[in-house]
Design goal:
The chain has three domains: 5-106, ACT domain (Alpha-Beta Plaits, 2-Layer Sandwich), CATH 3.30.70.260; 124-391, Orthogonal Bundle (Phenylalanine Hydroxylase); 399-441, no CATH class. It is 44% helix and 17% strand. It is built from 16 helices and 13 strands. It has helices spanning 29-37, 70-83, 128-131, 139-153, 168-188, 191-203, 214-224, 238-245, 270-281, 284-297, 302-317, 332-335, 338-346, 357-360, 380-391, 415-441, and strands at residues 5-8, 16-23, 41-51, 59-67, 86-95, 228-231, 249-252, 320-323, 326-329, 351-354, 373-376, 399-403, 408-412. The chain has a five-stranded antiparallel β-sheet with strand order 1-3-4-2-5. The protein has a two-stranded parallel sheet with strand order 6-7. The chain has a two-stranded antiparallel ribbon with strand order 8-9. Helix 7 packs parallel to helix 9. The chain is globular.
């Protein structure tokens, strides 16, 4: 199991810089390296460590400091660390710090930085209603689930996802869920889901007889929208989970719900991911919508993480939409639950409101049981537009853009960077306008 220790310092003055490195196991090695940082930094703002991939006790370490001298930081400190046992020292792009705002929380800059964020898992047994469920009373089930979660914890960015050898009981649970929810898809699921789901049956091995492996589903998504799946041990913290979406990475659990209640689970499981999330992520407009929420959360203050989580909850998890005047399900929590899909679409006792992010972000919800309120956008394109308007109200002194070529973020925090990006967008816009003109003539 991974360990994670975090220290958050006070508000930084001026620019902040971040470093990642690995330190081999040896008594006092990390303390010695931290002493080397001191002469280069006016303040050490954040230290985070976790066990590294190598099962030899090595630690991956992330530091954030306010440097005394920026030019000396990269050459001097990097050199010092490397010379004293630090491995794979990497400097993360600079982080602008506007002293008129609060400290910007650390966020990943490259897709590989997601490796640092996979260990803080929500414990459902802290919810008294969830703790009474049979899965938490069954020792054999918990043991199997722990084994599968530990496999996921070993995953590192870029590796192929190792398939799970599901047993007959697990496959039977999958079969029950698959049979039930697919009965409703033609009448209750949105057209984007049904189109993708049919395609996945023919090209991804989606069937009731075998739980599809994440690697095949991930490749399917990459070819369509650039989204990739990543195995995870359980439900991450909201900030960590939403951050992964900015990189078009979607974290998926691989364990399956308890066989005693195949039609309901409060937790994410492989049925929920494979049946609910994956097909929708192959739709370009939905993928863009999903990434937009991820980009918005990067470096956002805590109060906005809560609002963005609520927005995620009522859209990507429990969203409904209007199609030719009828309500349809597109949220994964609905598409993977026979009972709640019927409830959301058919029940006359639930409230359904038009899509309005400022209202949605204030809506209360429960992690356990069916929702009583749902929100519907006119289209995903319309939802993206409204979400962009909403996220513009989040107080952040920078703007992030994902670069798929480098798998990293472009953090724009000064006039020069923003102007450069504007020029690129204007050039592309001009090209497209010319093309539209030519096409109209033809
Ligand atoms: Fe989910």
């Amino acid at each position: 199991m991974c360990t994670r220790e975090t220290y958050c310092g006070s508000k930084p003055e001026g620019r902040t810089m971040s470093l990642l490195f690995t330190v081999e196991p040896s008594s006092g090695a990390l303390a010695k390296l931290l002493q080397l940082v001191e002469p280069y930094s006016s303040s050490l703002l954040h230290v985070e460590s976790r066990t590294a991939e190598k099962a030899d006790g090595s630690l991956d370490v992330c530091l954030r400091c306010t440097p005394k001298d920026e030019s000396n930081w990269s050459n001097g400190l990097q050199h010092q660390l490397q010379g004293n046992g630090a491995i794979n020292v990497r400097i993360l792009p600079e982080e602008s710090s506007d002293t008129s705002t609060n400290t910007v929380p650390w966020f990943p800059r490259r897709a590989s930085d997601l490796d640092l964020m996979m260990s803080e898992i929500y414990d459902f047994t802290t919810d008294p209603d969830a703790a009474k469920l049979p899965e938490f009373q069954d020792d054999a089930y918990q043991k199997r689930r722990k084994f599968i979660s530990e496999q996921a914890s070993k995953y590192r960015h870029g590796q192929p996802i190792i398939p799970i050898d599901y047993n007959e009981e697990e496959t039977q649970t999958w079969r029950t869920v698959f049979r039930e929810v697919t009965k409703l898809y033609p009448t209750h699921a949105c057209r984007q889901h049904n189109k993708a789901f049919n395609l996945m049956k023919s090209s991804c091995g989606y069937s009731e007889d075998k739980i599809p492996d994440l690697e095949g589903a991930s490749k399917f998504l990459q070819e369509r929208t650039g989204f990739r799946l990543r195995p995870v041990a359980g439900q991450l913290t909201p900030r960590d989970f939403l951050s992964t979406l900015a990189f078009r990475v979607f974290c998926c659990t691989q364990y399956i719900r308890h066989s005693s209640n195949p039609l309901y689970t409060p937790e994410p499981d492989v049925c929920h991911e494979i049946l609910g999330h994956v097909p929708m992520l192959s739709d370009p407009a939905f993928a863009e919508f999903t990434q937009e929420i991820g980009l918005a959360c990067l470096g956002a203050p805590d109060e906005f993480i809560e609002k963005l989580s609520t927005l995620y909850w009522f859209t990507i998890e429990f969203g409904i939409c209007k199609e030719a005047g009828e309500m349809k399900a597109y949220g994964a929590g609905l598409l993977s639950s026979f009972g709640e899909m019927k409830h959301a679409i058919e029940s006359s006792e639930v409230q359904r409101f038009p899509f309005h992010p400022p209202t949605i972000t204030e809506q209360k919800y429960s992690l356990v049981g069916y929702q009583n309120t749902y929100f519907y956008p006119e289209s995903f394109e319309d939802a993206v537009k409204r979400v962009r308007q909403y996220v513009a109200s989040i107080p952040k002194p920078f703007h992030c853009r994902y670069n798929p070529y480098t798998e990293g973020l472009e953090v724009m925090s000064n006039r020069e960077g923003v102007t450069r990006s504007l020029c690129e967008i204007e050039t592309e816009l001009e090209r497209l306008k010319k093309l539209v003109g030519k096409l109209e003539v033809q």
